Amino acid sequence: MSNSLLQTPIEYLKGVGPQRGELLRKELGIHRYEDLVNFYPNRYIDRTRYYKINELQKNDSEVQIIGKIIHIKTVEFGKAKKRLVATFVDETGEIELTWFQGHKWIRDSLKLNVPYVIFGKVASFGNTFNMAHPEMELLAEHEQSLRSAMQPVYPSTETLTNRGISNRVVNKMMQQLFVETQAKFIETLPAYLLDELKLIPKNAALFNIHFPKSQELLSKAQFRLKFEELFFIQLQLITKNLVRKHKIKGHPFTVVGENFNNFFQNHLPFELTNAQKKVLKEIRNDMGTNAQMNRLLQGDVGSGKTIVALMAMLIALDNGFQSCLMAPTEILANQHFNGLTELAKGLNINIKILTGSTKTADRKIIHEELENGSLHILIGTHALLEDKVQFHNLGLAIIDEQHRFGVEQRSKLWQKNDIPPHILVMTATPIPRTLAMSLYGDLDISVIDELPPGRKPIQTVHRYDSNRLKVWKFIKDEIAKGRQIYIVYPLIQESETMDYKDLMDGYESISRDFPLPQYSISIVHGKMKPADKDAEMKRFAEGKTNIMVATTVIEVGVNIPNASVMIIESAERFGLSQLHQLRGRVGRGAEQSYCILMTSFKLSSDSKVRLETMCQTNDGFEIAEVDLKLRGPGDIMGKQQSGVLQLQIADLVKDRDILMVARNEALKLLKKDPSMTLPEHQTLRTVFIELSKKKNIWNYIS
Ligand code: ADP
Ligand code: MG
């Protein structure tokens, strides 16, 4: 069996030997045959395409062309230096081929007026194209060669290249390895999975990752190997998670009763999107078991998380439990309170709000009602975490915008009870943080990946401060149509005073340009008393003012469908996810919405990328990807989670779809066969145990 053969030290491979073996170990961590098989190319050169000479462009990387040499000459240059120059033509034009070394031998071997396939990098000098040291092959031979059309390029290091281990050499080693092992590798996945997901067998996958026969087979090989990698990680994580879940009991919500059904049948203000239904089902399933739910609900701004939250709380209520919803700011808590009260107005339930500014008298009532169980749903801020707040029986805690609450705070909610409430964390910040979390197994994930119907995509543009007059004119036109406008200023904690000054200066000049009585302006910032803030928000929400000048306090959650223009001042100072969040404040109604990013002329290259990204896409996932590239995964994942996940072939960001499939399959498998002892899981189990020894999940993370 090739299994033990794969454990052979790499220097025993023909053509490697002790010296190269040492290099491979040191530079690439390749110790055994097995490591070499699992050393995958990081890109491929496409040799399926043939270029015509008139299609060549400056900066074309590597291309291949079919044509003939019609002329060869030796050109002298410098002191006693020569180069060989050939004129190569096809029916569309001509290019020069050059050689600086080995003239005689090459000159002798080249044939005139015979079809060749040439391959190499093109450079351009003026109007002529040139290819230095091309790979040459007679067309007749080319057609018969078995070489893969897609040529693998392996990761390398400077030392390796300097010591002669070129890509070609690695390629040769790989060929040798496939010869020695007869390309027989153990199938690691059960047959029914291969069937179900149409995965190609392990042998075929490894063969095609190194020697792809076609683009199609390469894609299949990549898919299979990525799936496998993520699948085994998920098996590890979920196994760990199951252990955790067995320890942490939860309240089983077994009934879906009166309140839920009444709401669903009689008070639903719109039809739920399929994504909302799907997510609700996942939540229901979780809460139906006697293990604690720990779920993350992820959905872009405006995707409709609020109603999902309410319906989950109704399930809790139908099972005789209380719920709470915690928001990071008072404005948001208020907004949730108003929104949920409105949604639930046909139902006979008691919803209240508790924040830092709740009056003592009201507070007392809330405390009482909480303890005697007559208060069903409590919305609030951090105030919910105070010791005095004692629930009669908290069954579900929903946390909005999780990045503002730490894990400790989350657990503070339930340390008060014996059996913890189910936890639902809602966030509009998509991956990568959350993806990493799924890898931690800390939370299960639900995604609302669909916006309610009828939304028009927000149009985003970038304008320099010097164009402000035009922007103001645009705003006036929009206001004349009855729309409302946000103008947001950055607020960065360290320079709060300066930011405050920017905001107030801005407010003054806006007030001058948009004078009363024709226009009225609201302002909201962090230095205001909560009551004043709310009053201003309310005026704007009710349409009494046209413009809302604000700092980022309005960043999350605020919902005013009539506001259709978001102007972000000093947009270069905001991070991508923040810009996206801010933009999400508009585009909530039926009207066309706009986001205008105002900046000075001084822009760093990163700022430019951020602005361009914003103008190009509304997709939060795409934006998160760019963010990941700009900031690096360590930064995004936060300090305690720093360190990149060391994956061999899968990419957590790009392959999130495969990750989800892998996760689902792993869940299904472990549900059916938690200890992986069924006959069809025999090999899987062996591989799993070996892998867990060698690559414990924590190794991926550090
Ligand atoms: P977010 O996910 O950002 O919290 P919200 O829950 O605030 O989104 O919903 C955004 C807006 O979309 C709200 O005005 C809400 O009433 C509306 N909405 C939510 N779901 C639907 C739906 N299925 N059909 C139509 N409108 C919806
Ligand atoms: Mg929301």
From TrEMBL:
Entry-linked InterPro entries: ATP-dep_DNA_helicase_RecG (IPR004609), DEAD/DEAH_box_helicase_dom (IPR011545), Helicase_ATP-bd (IPR014001), Helicase_C-like (IPR001650), NA-bd_OB-fold (IPR012340), P-loop_NTPase (IPR027417), RecG/Mfd (IPR047112), RecG_dom3_C (IPR045562)
Query: What are the protein's GO molecular function terms?
Result: 3'-5' DNA helicase activity; ATP binding; ATP hydrolysis activity; DNA binding
Keyword check for DNA damage: yes
Question: One GO biological process from the UniProt record?
Answer: DNA repair
Which stretches make up the Helicase ATP-binding domain?
286-448
EC class of the enzyme, as a word = isomerase
Q: Which reaction does it catalyse?
A: Couples ATP hydrolysis with the unwinding of duplex DNA by translocating in the 3'-5' direction; ATP + H2O = ADP + phosphate + H(+)
Can you tell me which family this protein belongs to?
Belongs to the helicase family. RecG subfamily.
Q: Tell me the function of this protein.
A: Plays a critical role in recombination and DNA repair. Helps process Holliday junction intermediates to mature products by catalyzing branch migration. Has replication fork regression activity, unwinds stalled or blocked replication forks to make a HJ that can be resolved. Has a DNA unwinding activity characteristic of a DNA helicase with 3'-5' polarity.
What is the protein's given name? ATP-dependent DNA helicase RecG
Species per Swiss-Prot/TrEMBL record: Flavobacterium sangjuense
Ranked from the top, the taxonomy reads: Bacteria, Pseudomonadati, Bacteroidota, Flavobacteriia, Flavobacteriales
